[in-house]
Amino acid sequence: MFTGIRRRMIAYYLVVIAVIVILMGAFFIWFLNNYYMQTLRENLYNQVRLSAALVEEMLARDAAPAELDQLCKNLGDELGLRLTLVAPDGSVLADSAEDPALMEDHSTRPEIIEAMEKKKGVATRYSFTLDEEMYYLAVPISSGPDTNSEGESNAVMRVALPLVGIKQAQSNLVLFIIGALFISSLVALTAAVFLSQRITGPIEKISVAARAIAGGNFTPPVEVKGRDELAQLASSIREMGSSLARKMNQVVWEKNKLETVVSSMSSGIILTDKEQNIELINPAAENLFDLESEKAIGSSFQKAIRYYTLNENLKAVCREGEAKTFEINLYYPRAAALDVYILPVFGAEGVIIGALLIFHETTELRSLEKMRSDFVANVSHELRTPLTTVRGYTETILHENLTREELADFLKIIDKETGRLSALLDDLLDLAQIENEKGFVKKEPVDLKAVIDEVVLRVDDLRIQQQVIITKNIPLEDILVAGNSEWLRQVLINVLENSIRHGRKGGKVEVSLVEKSGTAEVIVTDDGPGIPDDDLPYVFERFYRVDKSRSRKFGSTGLGLSIVKHIMEAHEAAYSLQSIEDRGTIFSFTLPLI
Q: How far apart are CA 483 and CA 451, in angstroms?
């Protein structure tokens, strides 16, 4: 099926061809019919003149009527025509088809009358003698015994031809013309189809290429040969597709960059239109407000986030076009503190088309600020107590007359308190160093078996003081892990000292080293009073003490387990502390084997 411009072109060609064929057919039929009839009349005229000349010779020698009749019959047979010799009185002297004696008077025949008057007579009429329609042509005979004194003929020679033959010849001519025109039309139609294909083929290729570009294929094959306008258009389409591909790639790249930036931002971002309908929301905002982007996008901001302060400020920004900044506290789906920035989005000619909401969570910052404040307060408190003691005993020594024994006791107390201050400052420095360096800890092969042996020896004085029995359950072979040997040694010292100090006097502490599934696990178990469940979540915090009076009695700074926590995090090690009151405490950590 031909569609589009090709169908219209072929239809136009058909109309033009049909008009030309009809006009040419009518002209040729008219022209050839006239030409045929003219030629027929000339041929008949020549034949009748030739027959008349023969008859004139016979009339000149006074030939008998029978001879004349026989001549007409012979000539009629040879020429395939009907010849009739008519006397001046209208009687028939000879006839090639009938008996002259039986024929009626021909003096009233139109062709006879016209031949007498104009030297040639033509007529078409129905012949009752032959019972068919005939074409007649008559000429006068100008010599012979029947010629008058002015040389005018007294007889007429007439030739007759059946119209059936003429009409059959004309019909054959018309059929030939129609057939020739039909064949010409088919040839012209084929040429039209071919030409339309040559013209519309490139247009179809260009159209297909345009649809492909519209569908996202910016480099479709569109080859049009030549240097005409269609070839130039195809070249322009290719260049346009390549340009669109470059522009689209650039747009996609920019879009992907923007989406990546927005998606990876820790701050929540929500974009709304002027009617406060959500158009964009990033994962951080989804997590903050417990939303799903598929459901949130397109819905009303007020419906998605039911927070009065947010909604009122958003409406004000969309109405007034001025940015707003404020703080809010969320309680659902989790408690969080947020700094909120609402910025108007302007379109063409400065018209407000929406708003951008940025949510920056400050929960951790506030927690850190509180932690810093608590840390300063705790450090101040921990420093103030020994300093107050030192200052008090120093003033007493300076202003009182003391015996040598009292002075020695006071100095021992001052020495003990300065030792607490020194231990506290050492722990603070260690903690600060670990926090600063834990992001890039230098790891090396560490033999955990050797570290455990060394640490057990280092806490031996405290063990003897507390009358604690330490048992080791470690393998004979060396076990190597990747880590910082000094820091891992500090972890074991802090844990063992805690177990000895806060365990049962005369109790037991067991240190185990277990190798399993490519890891080494260190387990320190004591049989002390344990830690209450309410205190377990806080034991790794700075300056936290379960039993404050006992901790100060043993000189604890409250930073030991906090140091352990940061060292474990620096090594990315799994660690845990389990305790049951009156049954003891278990501390363990795991490191991968080398």
A: 12
Question: Which own/partner contact pairs does 315-324 have at CB distance under 8 Å and 24+ positions apart?
Answer: 315/276, 317/342, 317/343, 317/344, 317/355, 318/272, 318/274, 318/276, 318/344, 318/352, 318/354, 318/355, 321/346, 321/352
Give 271's contacts (C-beta < 8 A, 6+ positions apart): 278, 279, 280, 281, 345, 354, 355, 356, 357
Residues in the chain with pLDDT values less than 70: 1-6, 129-130, 142-154, 200, 218, 222-226, 228, 367-385, 420-421, 423-441, 537-538, 542-558
- Residue 94, Cβ neighbours under 10 Å: how many? 27
User: Which element (helix H / strand E) includes 327?
Assistant: strand 324-330
State the total domains in the chain.
5
Residue 334 contacts residue 363 (beta carbons within 8 Å): no
Q: Distance (Å, rounded) from C-alpha 427 to C-alpha 425?
A: 5
Residue 193 in domain:
no
CATH number at residue 374: 1.10.287.130
Determine how many CB atoms are found less than 10 A away from the CB of residue 330.
Answer: 18
Q: 327 with 338: CB under 8 angstroms?
A: yes
What are the structure tokens assigned to 398, written together? 């300076």
- What one-character-per-residue DSSP string does 279-300 give? EEE-HHHHHHHT--HHHHTTSB
CA atoms within a 13 Å half-sphere pointing along the CA-CB vector of 216: 1
Same domain, 136 and 154: yes
At which of 388, 408, 437 does a domain end? 437
Domain extent for 402? 366-437
Task: Report if residue 200 sits inside a domain.
Answer: no
Contacts of 576 (CB under 8 A, 6+ apart): 587, 588, 589
Pairing of strands 469-473, 508-516: parallel
At 315, which CATH number? 3.30.450.20
Angle at CA of residue 211, ends 208 and 213, nearest 5°: 110
Nearest CA-CA partner of 43 in 124, 137, 130: 137
Q: What is the DSSP string of 211-239?
A: HHHHTT-SS------SSSHHHHHHHHHHH
- For residue 380, give both structure tokens: 């101040």
For residues 565 and 576, give the distance between their C-alpha atoms in angstroms, rounded to a whole number.
10
- Quick count: other Cβ atoms within 10 Å of Cβ 218? 20
Instruction: Report the distance separating Cα 462 and Cα 468, nearest Å.
Output: 9
Count of other CB atoms within 10 angstroms of residue 413: 15
φ/ψ (deg, to 5) at 233: -65, -40
Dmax (CA) for the chain in angstroms is: 208
- Please give the pLDDT value at position 277: 92
The pLDDT value given to residue 414 = 79
Question: What pLDDT is stored for residue 118 in this prediction?
Answer: 83
Distance CA 490, CA 487 (A): 5
